[in-house]
Design a protein that fits this description.
This protein is of the alpha+beta class. It has helices spanning 14-21, 25-32, 56-62, 136-166, 172-201, 388-395, and strands spanning 51-53, 66-68, 70-85, 91-95, 100-104, 116-117, 122-128, 210-213, 218-223, 230-231, 236-241, 245-253, 266-270, 280-284, 291-292, 297-305, 316-332, 338-339, 345-352, 355-367, 370-375, 382-384.
Length: 400
């Protein structure tokens, strides 16, 4: 007896099985016709995109000259950001010794902030103020009346001595003594009247002026007072800065501090300086130790001469510091190195007769007449020195 087995399938699988079994053969043939990706740049390699091939005429006209890269070693350096700061003791605030009224020395307006000042130059005068006394006017009027009385008495004695001398009953010495007493009394009266007049014009003015001189050469940073202003004792009058010598503060990561040659000088450049810009040398100085725990940096300080006032306090600069050990690489003339707008360094290497390829290189340092290349070239590679800029213009169609 033959047995039959019936398998039950879910209804949801019937459309799937039907689709598989009824798929037309044309779909399979269309998939077989799809081609893989292919090159559409004519088969040019990426390395050949920066290669220039010149004719003999063009090479002679551009004056191409090449130099072979030679193996060399030199000191390693690193570049950090630095900040220009004023050394301690070179920024000061001059204050009023006593309370008084300000009057500037010399005609015209006071000097503007930024003006250069010389040591011992009198910048302003300070008229001290008197302490207010009780019944001051009464006391001064009493002194004036007493002085008038002494003058009258002295005048009477002088006239009597003069008359007695004429009658030959007195002596010339007595007349001279009476005349001297009269002169003293008149001077005392004049002084008493002057004090009384000054009380009417300026009740608190002491009548003397204290000259406030500049303590040292420097730049006037801020002027805190105006003409005729009354200031209290100890109030700031002006601020002075000496900028002939500045410090450069360099924040170095704490993990890199042991790799630095701490006793060597630093090279300072402006942030927008090019490879041929002047370099300033700054000597290390002993400064109070400081660090930033948030940024994990340690501060190093270097002293820099600034007689031309090219650097300003707070200005950011690039500081190149020597590192311990030596860097090995290849030396080429600095004229062979070209820089793009992003600061990348390039050279043109001769790979075949009249064929030059542009190579990216890494420059460790440029000293004297040699640039030390640490990456991008091999020993003996011929790089273009004269005519490198012309090749760059030819490649990017910027030359003539």
């Amino acid at each position: 007896m033959r047995r039959r087995y019936l398998c039950s399938l879910p209804l949801s699988l019937f459309p799937l099985l039907t689709g598989i079994g009824c798929r037309p053969a044309a779909v399979t043939s269309e998939k077989a016709k799809v081609l893989p990706a292919k090159l559409s740049n004519g088969g040019v390699k990426e390395a050949d995109l920066a290669t220039i091939t010149l004719s003999e005429d063009a090479e002679r006209r551009l004056g191409i000259e090449t130099v072979a890269a030679q193996a060399a070693s030199g000191g390693r350096t690193g570049t950090w950001a630095g900040e220009v700061v004023i050394p301690p003791g070179q920024a000061m605030v001059v204050s009023a010794p006593v309370a008084g009224t300000v009057s500037f020395a010399g005609p015209g307006s006071p000097p503007a902030p930024g003006a250069r000042l010389k040591r011992n130059d009198v910048l302003l005068h300070l008229n001290p103020l008197l302490a207010v006394e009780r019944d001051l006017r009464v006391s001064l009027e009493s002194d004036a009346r007493a002085a008038e009385t002494r003058v009258d008495a002295a005048k009477t004695r002088f006239e009597r001595a003069e008359r007695m001398l004429k009658e030959q009953t007195g002596s010339a010495k007595a007349k001279e003594a009476a005349e001297e007493e009269l002169t003293l009394a008149q001077n005392a009266l004049a002084a008493a009247r002057a004090r009384l007049q000054r009380l009417d014009k300026a009740p608190l003015d002491a009548g003397v002026r204290a000259a406030i001189a500049v303590p040292k050469d420097g730049i006037l940073k801020t002027l805190h007072v105006a003409q005729g202003q009354m200031v209290a004792g100890g109030a700031p009058l002006f601020e002075l800065e000496q900028l002939d010598t500045l410090w450069i503060r360099v924040a170095v990561f704490a993990g890199e501090i042991d790799s630095l040659a701490r006793d060597s000088s630093a090279s300072v450049r402006a942030l927008n300086a090019g490879p041929n810009s002047p370099v300033r040398q700054a000597a290390p100085v002993l400064a109070p130790p400081s660090a930033d725990p948030v940024a994990s940096t340690v501060d190093l300080y270097f002293a820099l001469a600034n007689h031309d006032l090219a650097l300003r306090p707070g200005q950011k600069v690039g500081v190149t510091l020597p590192l311990r050990g030596e860097a090995r690489g290849l030396t080429i003339p600095p004229a062979a190195v070209l820089y793009d707008i992003h600061g990348g360094a390039w050279v043109y290497q001769q790979t075949a007769p009249r064929k030059y390829s542009r190579r990216r290189v890494e420059i460790s340092r440029v000293t004297g007449g040699a640039a030390l290349v640490t990456r991008g070239l091999q020993t003996g590679a011929k790089v273009v020195t004269a005519g490198a800029a012309e090749l760059f213009g030819t490649e990017f169609s910027t030359g003539k």
